[in-house]
Design brief:
Blueprint (H helix, E strand, L loop, with lengths): L29 H34 L7 H12 L7 E2 L2 E2 L6 H7 L8
Antiparallel strand pairs: 1-2
The protein binds heme C.
The site of heme C has 12 residues, from helix 3.
């Protein structure tokens, strides 16, 4: 910790003595630095946990309409994940751009007129 904010420019050449007017009291002490580190880490860990909890709540309660999750929707999601369709396709804009967006394929196959 030799060269903090009060680096060598604060010292006289050769003697290493503080220059006139140099104040060493504004230096961050080791324990203050440690407190900032642990305090900051704990604070942001708490923020992170709160955000994870909020995301979980939001997905369950707001962004997913569970009443519309039929067995075929669930089976489709399983297939989508097991066979990694997302490595090539997008669905609702999410995924890779190698193969056609399957939302558009669904429309082209007549999904809007006859969803089943
Ligand atoms: C290795 C990359 C790859 C993977 C993995 C993949 N696809 Fe494809 N898929 C393609 C490509 C490329 C096309 C376009 C073929 C064409 O238009 O000639 C295509 C076409 C399609 C089509 C027809 C599109 C049309 O225009 O008729 C459907 C439906 C489809 N894929 C569904 C799936 C599903 C479901 C999965 C997962 C089980 C999947 N694909 C996995 C590359 C992939």
């Amino acid at each position: 910790m030799g060269e903090g904010r009060s680096g060598p420019w604060r010292l006289r050449p050769r003697t290493g003595q503080p220059r006139q007017g140099a104040r060493f009291t504004d230096r961050l002490t080791k324990s203050a630095a440690r407190n900032i580190f642990y305090g900051g880490s704990l604070f942001f860990l708490a923020v992170f946990i709160a955000l994870v909890a909020h995301s979980h709540y939001y997905i369950r309660a707001v962004s997913t309409d569970e009443s519309k999750l039929t067995p075929s929707v669930v089976a489709g999601k399983r297939i989508w994940e097991r066979h990694s369709c997302i490595n090539c396709h997008t669905i609702l804009g999410e995924g890779a751009y190698f193969a056609p967006e399957l939302g558009n394929v669904w429309v082209r196959y007549g999904g809007r007129e006859d969803p089943d």
